Structure formats: structure tokens, C-alpha cells
Amino acid sequence: MSDLGPVVLSTGLICSVGLSSDSACAAIRARVSAAADTRFRNAAGEWIRGHSVALEAPLGGIARLARMAAMAIEEALSGIPREQLRSIPVLFCLAETDRAGRPPSLDIDLPDLIMRELGAELHADSRVISAGKVAASVALQAAPSLLGRVPRLLVVAADSFLTWPVLRNLDAESRLLSDANSDGFLPGEAAAALLLGLTADGPGLRILGAGFEVESAKPGSGRPHRADGLTSAIKAALAQASCTMHDIDYRISGLSGEQYFFKEATLALLRTLRVRREQLDIWHPAEFIGETGAVAGVAAVVLAQSAAARGYAPGPRVMIQMTNDDGRCAAMILAQESGS
Q1: Cβ distance 293 to 193 under 8 Å?
Q2: Cα–Cα dist 26/4, whole Å
Q3: Measured distance CA(9)–CA(199) in Å, rounded
Q4: Helix (H) or strand (E) run with residue 229 in it
Q5: Which of 56, 198, 257, 300 has the most CB atoms around its CB within 10 Å?
Q6: How far apart are CA 249 and CA 300, in angstroms?
Q7: What CATH architecture does domain 7-197 belong to?
Q8: Which is more confident, 97 or 201?
Q9: Which fold has domain 204-337?
Q10: Is 46 exposed, middle or buried (0-12, 13-18, 19+ CB in 10 A)?
Q11: Global pTM value
Q12: CB 152 within 8 A of CB 7
């Protein structure tokens, strides 16, 4: 990442508890959850609970993701003429290519459908990042090089676990939260967008550093879990941001309910925090909007931006930490600044 990381200019968020950044973040802050029975049953015949988005049009599949993503983009670009979208590269954050139940043509079809929804052409520097929860960190690390050529950049994420091919696999692996399984999560769907630039006219959230690593002790590996991957990612992000864990005011994570990842977050903190702290909050939005996969990292930035702008953040520096099922770990450091 360059010496001057990108700054978040505006955001968009579509999820189960709100159809805008303001409404969704207010609901999350108020600890509102919209979990309800889906139209799917698990192997035991029980209704699967999840977090679905209330769209006016009865869409499904990739078309549903495209509509949600277009709504998030429209919010992030509020006040910007639609014709200017063709001059803004878009980094699409999507589900991992090896996720069971993922549409095989997602990388090609979804960006095309999103731009059709918006009635715009795709910028030549746009690209797809199929990296699940860590996709946002990958996109934000790539942003400075693009912002050296264009004044603004969009990071857009859309994902859903509320399709039968995905749910069937999760149920077979006993990963869904139910009366019979407390070590699981509630599936969700969402879309989010960030408009980035190198300077802001007012207060903004700037990305200071990012770190990546791969965890070898994945669930089922039989290896002792020491959170080596996330610990290394956090240390790399801290080094890039020229700060220590003690300088971080709070954290936002991709934790969605499974014990493995809560243990990982605890171990990583123990191995990186060298000064006693009475409290270092960790927020997990999935508690209120469900597991949203590739949207989790972008939604975390939206929440951090809202917390900074509205004055309820515990402090100016936030760490966002995410881990994929495949062991890929990422950490980002962001800080509130006054702007230029």
C-alpha cells in the first residue's frame, strides 16, 4: 500500500436490517436482528432460519444479487451523475470460487447484470476479486495503484448464503445454527459499496494498512490452533500502519457464530497486544445481519465509517479482521481523519 492510503468518501449497504447505510448501521448499533424462518428445511425437517433482504421485486439467484448491489452503488454514488460511473473503476468482491453451491458463471454474469441495472458501462480497469471475506482487504490494498490514475474508485460486494445449493452443503457439514447445533451461524445475504478517493472534503476514514496470511490449522486439519495466520496478518497490517495493537481503539470482525473463529480472534489478540488494556471492543455485525461472506469486509468498513461520522466509535483507529473457511486471513487498519 502506498504512503497515502485511500479514504472512504461515501457508502452503501443493503442487508436484512436496512436498505441504506444509515438505517442498517442504526439497526446494528441498536442490536436489532431480523432473523426469520426461510423457505428451506434442514435434514431434520426443521425450517432453516436466516437473514433475508426485503426487496420489492421477487427476484432470485444472480438477478437478486445484482439488484442489491445496484441499490448499494446508487446510495454510494448519491449526488454523482449516472454518466460519470463509466469513469469509475469497480472492484467486485465476490464469493470464493470453490464455495459449494456458488453459481459457476458468477464472475462473468454478476458484474454484467449490475451494470445493466445501473444503465452504465463498465470501466476498463474494473476487476473481480473472488476471495470471500478477505476480498475487501484485497480490494483496498489494490486501490492506491488505481487511484493514481483515476480520482475515484468503487468497491462493491454482493453475496448470499440463502440458496438451496449453499444451504444444503452447510447443513450437511453441521455449520448452520439450529436447536440441535449451537456451534453454527445463521445464513444471510447483503450488498455493500464504498466510494474511495485519495482526499476528502470533510472527515473521512482512511485505510492505513493491510496484512494477509494463510492459516494452516484449519477446522478438521487436526493441527493445534494457535491463530498463526490471523496473528501474522494483524502484525503485517500494524507494521504497515506504523502502530501497535495498543493503539487500536476497537475491532470489527467477520465472526458469525462458530467457536473456531471466536477462539482464533481471542488467540490473535493475546499474541499481539503487549500492553494491558481494560477493554478492546470487538464488534461482529453478523450477529444482526447473518453470515454474508464476501460482503462482511465491506460492510465492516461501512459500519466503521458510520461510527466515526456519528461519534459512537470508541476511538479513531479501528482494525477489521476477517478469516475465510479456506484459511486465508486478512486485517486492515483504518483511522478517522479530519479531511482536507
Answers
A1: no
A2: 30
A3: 8
A4: helix 228-241
A5: 300
A6: 15
A7: 3-Layer(aba) Sandwich (3.40)
A8: 97
A9: Peroxisomal Thiolase; Chain A, domain 1 (3.40.47)
A10: middle
A11: 0.96
A12: no
pLDDT per position as a tens digit, 297-334: 999 999 999 999 999 999 999 999 999 999 999 999 99
Same fold, 7-197 and 204-337: yes
DSSP labels, 128-168? EEE-GGGHHHHHHHHHHHHHTTSS-EEEEEEEE--SHHHHH
Specify the 3-state DSSP secondary structure of 232.
Answer: helix
Average pLDDT estimate for 260-284: 94
pLDDT class of 199 with cuts at 50, 70, 90: confident
pLDDT for 20 = 98
Question: In whole angstroms, what is the distance from residue 303 CA to residue 296 CA?
Answer: 10
| CA atoms within 13 A of residue 280's CA, in its CB half-sphere | 22
CA atoms within 13 A on the CB side of 140: 34
The full set of domain ranges for the chain reads 7-197, 204-337
C-alpha 92/C-alpha 56 separation (Å) is 24
Helix 295-310, helix 21-29: angle, nearest 10: 80
- Dump pLDDT digits (tens) for 66-95: 999 999 999 999 988 888 899 999 999 999
Say which amino acid occupies 164: W
DSSP, res 184: -
Report the amino acid identity of residue 50.
Answer: G
Within a 10 A sphere around the Cβ of 337, how many other Cβ atoms?
16
Residue 334 grid cell: 483504518
Neighbouring residues of 221: CB distance < 8 A, sequence distance ≥ 6: none
